[in-house]
């Protein structure tokens, strides 16, 4: 697998904030054991710091936030006063990184880099962090939360899609050999009760979903469907694969002339059009997909240009909603590459898709350097998903070819 080495010089050792040796803040609350690190950043004008590879920087971001409980934005149904509790009590694994879904994909980021041997110098630290969180006791706490009244829709579909991406990653590692494979098998077995519950909830929900959700944020169905399919392929769950495939085709097979001119909305981090295109390559063969894409996005250039799709602009990286557009640039990049990977090698549109992907990906990776927690707590996961080509089928054509 080919990995990008672009922008390495831009990634500095304290990209995520504090270093591993930075002072730790231990909560003063007597009834919880929450390990928190400060999220500070150096003066950008300080040029004395050693540059760091992007993967190291992204791993540091995740290590610094997966156990950082505050600030925190919870989506929590209260059934009684007994449900009033701190995030680490409610969901004892995935309480950091500002919200549940970001904590989940922060764990995925670490698992991905560790399992792919991309940061060997950090393997021990990453494994220790994952081991501390993937315990039977903490999984039981997560499971109990999901089983609470009126919580079947919790983090659906975005957060639970990322959870399935996490367990899919563990399956890939577990299918290998050596110590990491054995460790991944253990963690996967511990997470399996929660995985089983989540997959069951998805299977109950999909037949009831009458229309696609075309938003550019968390509730979008196309992005989640793609991750559901990727998980089903790795787990061998043919029932879920069939359900998602049927819904994808019924929702989108007849889609035409997707209005890219209306994108982006001001708070998007997922493209309504490109995520559908990235989904449909998973449920159509190459020739059918090429024809469908011609009708769905008829204006993709054939001249190799990359500026046909403008990069999203963020005017205030401290604003947690406006900074979504940095994530849009990264998710567009992986969607464009996914689309190109599904087209025949001689398709004239591939060059323009890949050129635009590079522009969007490079812009998005520069934004990951932000010292502001509004972006840093989640953008590294998007950059890692793009950088490591996670969403592209290994049997597909190589976008760099």
Describe this structure in words.
This protein has 401 residues and is mainly alpha-helical. It has one domain (8-387). The protein has helices spanning 54-65, 87-90, 100-115, 123-133, 136-146, 158-174, 179-205, 221-235, 238-252, 272-280, 286-296, 324-342, 350-367, 373-387, and strands spanning 24-26, 35-37. Strands 1-2 form a two-stranded antiparallel sheet. Strand 1 and strand 2 (35-37) form a beta hairpin. Helix 1 crosses helix 14. The longest helix has 27 residues, at 179-205. It is globular, with a radius of gyration of 20 Å.
Q: Helix/strand-derived class?
A: mainly alpha
Low-confidence stretches: 1-51, 394-401
Count every beta strand, where a strand is a DSSP E run of 2 or more residues. 2
Distance between the termini: 12 Å
Strand order of the largest sheet: 1-2
Radius of gyration: 20 Å
Number of domains: 1
Q: Describe the sheet with the most strands.
A: 2 strands, antiparallel
What percentage of residues falls in helices of 4 or more residues? 40-55%
Q: Helix segment count?
A: 14
Helix-strand sequence: EEHHHHHHHHHHHHHH
Share of residues in strands: under 5%
Mean pLDDT: 87
Shape: globular
